[in-house]
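hiii, so i know i said id send this last week but things got crazy w the move. better late than never?? heres the sequnce for the chain we talked about at the cafe, plus the structure i predicted for it. fair warning i was half asleep when i ran it
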Amino acid sequence: TDSVPTGYASMNVIATPTASGATVTCNGGNCSSVTLTGTSTPVSVVVTNGTSTLTYTLDILRQQTPAAVAHDTTISWIGASNMTPSAVAAGVLTYTFSSASGSGFNMTLTDPSATVTTDLAGATCTSTRCDIPTLTSNTTMHLTVHNGSSSLTYTFILDI
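okay and structure toks below
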């Protein structure tokens, strides 16, 4: 199995026989231009040497472009100088804020039509900003991004 970009219409299959005088065909024709069809093209490579025949099968896959996520629930940017890690990273769902008491942060949702909720009493969050109330101890806030039938929860560790 081999993989090529989606735009490829044909491939050159290099099949070199080890015996002199042997011939090689791909799908019954020339191996220098194998037409690709659909997302997967099986190629029958036949090596003939006199009366002996060996057949190999090769699958050539076209790389597929993933479809856009219909209900994106990610945060693409958080503006806070007191955050660790200091930038939003794909797959990272936990962030720590130092000196968080009574502060807040701006954010950008990847899909602006998404909404947010939080479980922290007194916190006010919209799709662009979260304001954190005055805290008396370190606490954890969960911020959930909702979009259609999908949701994703981020955890913010708030250190005072």
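btw The first strand starts at residue 2 and ends at 4. thought thatd interest u
miss u guys!!
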